UniProtKB/TrEMBL annotation:
It comes from Hucho hucho. Signal peptide: none annotated. The keyword Iron does not apply. It catalyses: beta-D-fructose 6-phosphate + ATP = beta-D-fructose 1,6-bisphosphate + ADP + H(+). Keywords: Allosteric enzyme, ATP-binding, Cytoplasm, Glycolysis, Kinase, Magnesium, Metal-binding, Nucleotide-binding, Transferase. This is Phosphofructokinase, muscle a. Its cofactor is Mg(2+). GO terms for cellular component: 6-phosphofructokinase complex; membrane.
Length: 699
């Protein structure tokens, strides 16, 4: 348990410009201030650290307000050649010593973190040189004898080892999918082939997930160069799709894609191939830096906030013997990795000796299965029906498409049950196999991810409040009795409070929240945001809370309320929902296939064991199948929610970031783990090309 107190920790920040970074900066500043630390901004990245002066400024609570919805970084970033030289690093060390800063929080990609690792490694010798030069005293050198460093990874490429997702990647995927969806409509209308080139340097994550999310006909990524003769295979694939009645073809190309001979494969090369061999009307689109901008997604805001909190905790716990670490994400768990190991892997493996995350491998294996359907010659004699039950949610079409395709590949007869259980009761069961392409094309047409809906809606409401001072908005969210949406939306949008069923509250809590807003209106931040889950309390309704806040805030602030309703279930699904739904559908049918083989005996199926009925879901770091029988003890059936929820531990973070003086439970902080190196076989020409690139970079 951590209580707010005065602490000697003085974290400061070095940032590169990527979506979602502002959330990390905001969280680190506010949690640092919560601990009693002095927190400094370093403007313009390492260049500001070298130049010092006005580039290094004290941060305040208000200085990080209204920044969650902004892309890039509000404290700026810059390429810095000076920091690459020892003389530049000496200047940076001098600036830190003079300000008494011995804790550094670096937010950036592999280059930034490599620089941070070198800076820490040289720290003691830099101090010696500064003392010899008479620029610092022996006492100053003794006081600043050790430099603690914690890194947070910001990179749209998702190319850093040891983490499932880097800050900025999900936002970049949003930009890409928005373009893909727009292009798909025109491509269908004109029966065109579209080739989209996305960023990623030597990492194909963006291209791979985009291909998986949009059902692309082909994807070129650096990690997996196409086999010899790929040109003919690609053309046959596109021709087969057109013969089946598909009106468009989509090909995704990573900017670093290359063949097994080491030669680059670019979008224009592919266009010429398709036009020459097939005569298809073909267009190319190179997305470029549009992928790096825009409003950060809810996922990136929450990820940045969680990583910021974890970074401060790591600095608080650091000792001279503690290795510098990188905080990252594994599944839904925060982890810490030794900075030096991550840097070594980044420097020595780059493209060819990759530390592939499980999510990358799962994405690639799933795409390979789904991209090219080759039904077996013999049927399995197994009928599998797919039925959607309950309210509509994001990713359903992606899951159905994936399940149908995997089932066909397994030789099963795939059946679609229309209209849920009611349709099953009335016999509305059909064979969707012949409609497989139509299913593929409708992935992008059913419900939107609620996270994104909430962060954009709350952004607009807060912006409205910013234009009119002393205003508090009260928003009712859906979710039944589950407060996940209200909590995560509150964390992503910077809410002052989020009322949910799982976290009981009473009139005293409401009074405290009103008084908190009254005090807030005395600062420079004269706006408020309150979220309420629809079933959080039968008596403290949205109307009641609105009336209470309006009455108690009279003369200080006025209130507005908004009940979002079923708007939350509309729109198009996000990249995460499409990707997650696709992998869930695939994994479910493969599990079902294996289970049926186990229980099939003498022409009959004996499904009478507890594990014959399971729920598939994410638990900590992996997708797992859990028997329904086990879930009985873990479920509140009356309210249709789990008895325990991992995300409830994030609620104190939301309150601390809103400046409530509460305790923070640190008993389950992230522990230091190690990077596992996994070699990926690559052709000799590619390895030679990589070695040449490394030599050029070193020169």
């Amino acid at each position: 348990m951590y209580e707010p107190s005065v602490s000697p920790v003085n974290p400061m920040f070095v940032c590169l410009c990527l979506s979602g970074m502002n959330a990390a900066v905001r969280a680190t500043v506010r949690v640092g201030l919560y601990t009693g630390a002095k927190v400094y901004f370093v403007h313009e990245g390492y260049q500001g650290l070298v130049d010092g002066g006005e580039n290094i400024k004290l941060a305040t609570w208000e200085s990080v307000s209204m920044m969650l919805q902004l892309g890039g970084t509000v404290i700026g970033s810059a390429r810095c050649m000076d920091f690459r030289a020892r003389e530049g690093r000496m200047k940076a060390a001098l600036n830190l010593v003079k300000l008494g800063i011995t804790n550094l929080c670096v937010i950036g990609g592999d280059g930034s973190l490599t620089g941070a690792n070198q800076f820490r490694t040289e720290w003691s010798t830099l101090l010696v040189d500064l003392v010899k030069a008479g620029k610092i005293s022996d006492d100053e050198a003794k006081t600043s004898s050790h430099l603690n460093i914690v890194g947070m990874v910001g990179s749209i490429d998702n190319d850093f080892c040891g983490t499932d997702m880097t800050i900025g990647t999900d936002s970049a995927l949003h930009r890409i999918i928005e373009v893909v969806d727009a292009i798909t409509t025109t491509a269908q209308s004109h029966q065109r082939t579209f080739i989209l080139e996305v960023m990623g340097r030597h990492c194909g994550y963006l291209a791979l997930v985009t291909a998986l999310a949009c059902g692309a006909d082909w994807v070129f990524i650096p990690e997996m160069p196409p086999d010899e003769g790929w040109e003919g295979h690609l053309c046959r694939r596109l021709a087969d799709q057109r013969a089946r009645g598909c009106r468009l073809n989509v090909i995704i190309v990573a900017e670093g894609a290359m063949g097994r001979d080491g030669k680059p494969i670019g979008s224009e090369d592919i266009k010429k191939l398709v036009e020459k061999n097939l005569g298809f009307d073909t267009r190319t689109t190179v997305l470029g830096h549009v992928q790096r901008g825009g409003t950060p997604s809810a996922f990136d805001r929450i990820l940045g906030s969680r990583m910021g909190v974890e970074a401060v905790m790591a600095l608080l716990e650091a000792t001279p013997e503690t290795p510098a670490c990188v905080v990252s994400l594994s599944g839904n768990q925060a982890v810490r990795l030794p900075l030096i190991e991550c840097v070594q892997v980044a420097a020595n493996t780059s493209l060819f000796l990759l530390v592939l995350s499980r999510s990358f491998e799962n994405n690639w294996n799933t795409y390979k299965m789904l991209a090219h359907i080759n039904p077996p010659d013999s049927k399995s004699n197994i009928n599998v029906a797919i039925v959607n039950v309950g309210a509509p949610c994001a990713g359903m079409n992606a899951a159905v498409r994936s399940a149908v395709r995997i089932g066909i590949i397994q030789g099963h007869n795939m059946l679609a049950v229309y209209d849920g259980f009611e349709g099953l009761a009335h016999g509305n069961v059909f064979l969707p196999s012949k409609y497989i392409e139509e299913i593929s094309l409708t992935i992008a047409k059913l419900p939107h991810n609620m996270h994104v809906f909430f962060d954009t809606t709350c952004d607009r409401i807060k912006q409205s409040a910013a234009g009119t001072k002393r205003r508090v908005f009260i928003i009712e969210t859906m979710g039944g009795y589950c407060g996940y949406l209200a909590t995560m939306a509150g964390l992503a949008a910077g809410a002052d409070a989020a009322y949910i069923y799982e976290d009981k509250f009473g009139i005293r809590d409401l009074e405290m929240n009103v008084e908190h807003l009254v005090q807030k209106m005395k600062t420079d931040v004269k706006r408020g945001l309150i979220l309420r889950n629809e079933n959080c309390n039968a008596n403290y309704t949205t109307d009641f809370i609105f009336a209470l806040y309006s009455e108690e805030g009279k003369g200080v602030f006025d209130c507005r309320k908004n009940i979002l309703g079923h708007m939350q279930q509309g729109g198009t699904p996000t990249p995460f929902d499409r990707n997650f739904g696709t992998k869930m559908g695939s994994k479910a049918v493969l599990w079902l296939t294996d289970k049926l083989k186990e229980v099939y005996r003498h022409g009959r199926i004996f499904a009478n064991t507890p594990d014959s009925a399971c729920v598939l879901g994410m638990r900590k770091r992996a997708l797992t199948f859990q028997p329904l029988a086990e879930l009985i003890e873990q479920t509140d059936f009356e309210h249709r929610i789990p008895k325990t929820s991992w995300w409830l531990k994030l609620r104190p973070i939301m309150k601390i970031l809103a400046k409530y003086n509460i305790s923070l439970d640190t008993s389950e902080h992230a522990h230091m783990e190690h990077v596992i190196k996994k070699r990926v076989s690559m052709p000799a020409p590619l390895m030679k090309k990589h070695e040449e690139e490394v030599e050029e970079e070193e020169e």
